[in-house]
Amino acid sequence: MQPVIDTSPKVSDEVRKTTCYMCACRCGINVHMKDGKVAYIEGNRDHPVNKGVLCAKGSAGIMQVNAPSRLRAPLKRVGPRGSGEFEEISWDEAISTAVGWLNELHETAPHKLAFFTGRDQSQSFTSFWAQNFGTPNYAAHGGFCSVNMAAAGIYTMGGAFWEFGQPDWDHTKLFMLFGVAEDHDSNPIKMGIGKIKARGARVIGVNPIRTGYNAVADDWVGITPGTDGLFILSMIHVLMKAGRIDLDYLGRYTNAPVLVDADTGLLLRDADDKPLVIDRASGKPAPFDRPGVSPDLSATHEVDGVTHRPVFHHMAERYLSEDYAPEAVAERCGIPAPRIRAIAAELARVAFDEAFEIEREWTDFRGETHKTMTGRPVSFHAMRGISAHANGFQTCRALHILQIILGTVEVPGGFRFKPPYPKPVEAHPTPHSGRRPGRPLNGPHLGFPRGPEDLQVDDAGKPNRIDKAFSWENPMSVHGLMHMVISNARAGDPYHIDTLFLYMANMSWNSSMNSSGVMEMLTARNDDGGYVIPRIIYSDAYSSEMVAYADLILPDTTYLERHDCISLLDRPICEADAAADAIRWPVIEPDRDVRGFQSVLIELANRMSLPGFTDADGTPKWTDYANYIVNHERRPGIGPLAGFRGTGDKVGRGEVNPEQLNRYIENGGFFVEHIPEAAQYYKPWNTAYQDWAVGLGLFESPQPYLFQLYSEPMRRFQRAAEGHGDRQPPEHLRDRIRTHLDPLPFWSDTDQTGNAGFTVTALTQRPMAMYHSWGSQNAWLRQLHGRNPLYVPTKLMREHGLSDGDWARVTSPHGEITVPVMEMAALNENTVWTWNAIGKRKGAWALDEEAPEATQGFLLNHLIHELLPPKGDGLRWANSDPVTGQAAWFDLKVRIEKADAPPDESQPVFAPIDSPVGTGPKELRWKVGK
């Protein structure tokens, strides 16, 4: 007799809908509850981001909530820094201690607070707090993640990939991606690739490593790391030489026809500061946006014997040079010249020969009405792989120009912006860093410099910020340089700080270059025995490696235990067809003495009576973060959340609604406002979109603009290096600025100082199943990646006599590691790589000291330095992009050799740190419900 089996057991007695936090996709999730506890997590089918799809990370969120590594109470250090010796204290003592340290700085020297956050997803709020504290030293993790991609995109076309835009998955026929991290935006990309491949579209993957998205690509290009820009510019050369570019698109929507002043290299402008083009009808200069004007790409303008040429002439002069011919670049890129030509030809064939039209009327910013929309079904996507190089900014700009000359941006089948993008550089703030004790900073910390006048330096040219962002060393930093904060503070360059305040930034381990050096910096002492960085405050939900180096720990909640706001003011969940935002809310209450970090910041602000957080009569404006989300207004009627404003019926603009969070919860934790059909494409120039964006509160007035193939802000910096203007760079930086801040993208090899004998490139990438460091302490996800070998191409395995499971010594100009290896055939033949953030320090994350992450897991970070090797000029140069300062993680050069005597554990080995949470059980076992 067959047993009776319930094949559909009751999963839960309640479902609570919220937003995932296990990566930056911010998918919608259904949290199934039994007896008030989390029993199961699945995707929300009604959610605009993932439509029910959920990855391994999202499903494993239940293990984050139950992780043994969760911090349990506020902590005060009682042993030396780095020992991990703490005692639990009350929240009142923790807040009082922090206020005691911070309040004096706020009143006397706010710049001596360095407040930097990791992947917190609430940067609009944390920057608001720092601005009102008055410190110039605030930024998030973007400076060592993807600032080159974001900055290059916004300076070139008013937006960039991933959070700023997406391919037109419904119409794309050819999708090309470069260096995409598999943990970022994974569900939407997987869904999109599945959709386009189902209808026969092709995928080309450009990456030295063939995993993830590249493994399912129809064509894999195993490029030599750091040469993506050269490859892209070579394809631009081929396309321009063949005339396979969209001249009509370039003339209408870009600054290709704008005249360049032959004397200054700046754009010619009229009395109203409008860039000038030559009108085809009149043959005379006219402002680019004059109704009826038809810009001429070929005409020149002569004044007093001086010929002023349009941007397009300058592009042709540069990119038609044989320096960019496939035959000239093939060896450096590791891609045969015929293949470069074939890929360029395929891009052009699909863009032009498979072009199509949508019968949809729209009116452009010049007042011309178009009956149709032209589709060019080629789309691109890129991420950290091409960004984290010292030539990353210009490489990213080159990729955007490739898209633009094909006419594939903001058209059917191409790349499409997500609200609140697109918007021109002029719509963004410039950076600020004024020191005003007891008062707020005089403007936002981060922004987009338009020229030397926006640099944050003093009268002597010395940087105002501890990370040297927006200085002559890193003029267009945009996101700040979090990776330079600790080393600069240790050196007292440009000055010493008093307090380092970090949130979710594992700077003593995998979020730093030169990890062992950073650990020494955090524990360095002065001659009087005090620490060089006197105070360190840290907030995290888990007992990470960084916890041991803090003096005061403010324990955060997990993502299911707090309010969060995924806001249009910050990093929303929009899609190309809709504006959308979302919340998280406490679907469960913490079982520990922990508090959401954002609410802790509000309490700190209230205790210090920070301006911006305090009414005129001295009473706090907000009691906690949930109260802030609902009641804060950046501008009248514009708050963190766009949905359910007023009495619940207003969108974007509207009065504060006390029930707003409840309306979001009832709606599944998100809000969506669809873009009208006529406004869904050509957004930078489409009057219907511009008017819709104004109505929603994205802009105060329409912001049509031209794509900037030629970047005037960069030319302004370049002119300063040539000796023009009141603000001049120091002599040792003139040549660098003159070279690297070129207004037209170019390719340059990265600095090879000290790399003699180190000929192999070493890379890291994140697996789809993990995200930053917290995923690799997750009991379910550890089963997928419990250790990380060094993957070595077949050629190097044979040369060094290596077999799977052998150990190799890997050396860089900075350090040495000894690690296990595995062979990988689908890998650039001169590149090695490993998964990032798998290796753990013993004592951290509540893992057993013999856990594979602590014995066979490892970091390449020990081989990378935040500074380049000495050049012999008496200076130390940052290992970063000279334009933005982004950390050049992927420029690492190494040599490998077989280890004579395989060690028992990966090297280097660091002494275990005491953990305030101890070691977790051998097995995690619990039962929810009956």
UniProtKB/TrEMBL annotation:
<dbReference type="Pfam" id="PF01568">
    <property type="entry name" value="Molydop_binding"/>
</dbReference>
<dbReference type="InterPro" id="IPR006657">
    <property type="entry name" value="MoPterin_dinucl-bd_dom"/>
</dbReference>
<dbReference type="GO" id="GO:0016491">
    <property type="term" value="F:oxidoreductase activity"/>
</dbReference>
<keyword id="KW-0411">Iron-sulfur</keyword>
<dbReference type="InterPro" id="IPR006963">
    <property type="entry name" value="Mopterin_OxRdtase_4Fe-4S_dom"/>
</dbReference>
<feature type="region of interest" description="Disordered">
    <location>
        <begin position="901"/>
        <end position="930"/>
    </location>
</feature>
<dbReference type="GO" id="GO:0043546">
    <property type="term" value="F:molybdopterin cofactor binding"/>
</dbReference>
<dbReference type="Pfam" id="PF00384">
    <property type="entry name" value="Molybdopterin"/>
</dbReference>
<keyword id="KW-0408">Iron</keyword>
<dbReference type="InterPro" id="IPR006656">
    <property type="entry name" value="Mopterin_OxRdtase"/>
</dbReference>
<feature type="region of interest" description="Disordered">
    <location>
        <begin position="422"/>
        <end position="458"/>
    </location>
</feature>
<keyword id="KW-0479">Metal-binding</keyword>
<feature type="domain" description="4Fe-4S Mo/W bis-MGD-type">
    <location>
        <begin position="13"/>
        <end position="69"/>
    </location>
</feature>
<comment type="similarity">
    <text>Belongs to the prokaryotic molybdopterin-containing oxidoreductase family.</text>
</comment>
<dbReference type="InterPro" id="IPR009010">
    <property type="entry name" value="Asp_de-COase-like_dom_sf"/>
</dbReference>
<keyword id="KW-0004">4Fe-4S</keyword>
<keyword id="KW-0560">Oxidoreductase</keyword>
<dbReference type="Pfam" id="PF04879">
    <property type="entry name" value="Molybdop_Fe4S4"/>
</dbReference>
<dbReference type="GO" id="GO:0030313">
    <property type="term" value="C:cell envelope"/>
</dbReference>
<protein>
    <submittedName>
        <fullName>Anaerobic selenocysteine-containing dehydrogenase</fullName>
    </submittedName>
</protein>
<dbReference type="GO" id="GO:0051539">
    <property type="term" value="F:4 iron, 4 sulfur cluster binding"/>
</dbReference>
<dbReference type="GO" id="GO:0046872">
    <property type="term" value="F:metal ion binding"/>
</dbReference>
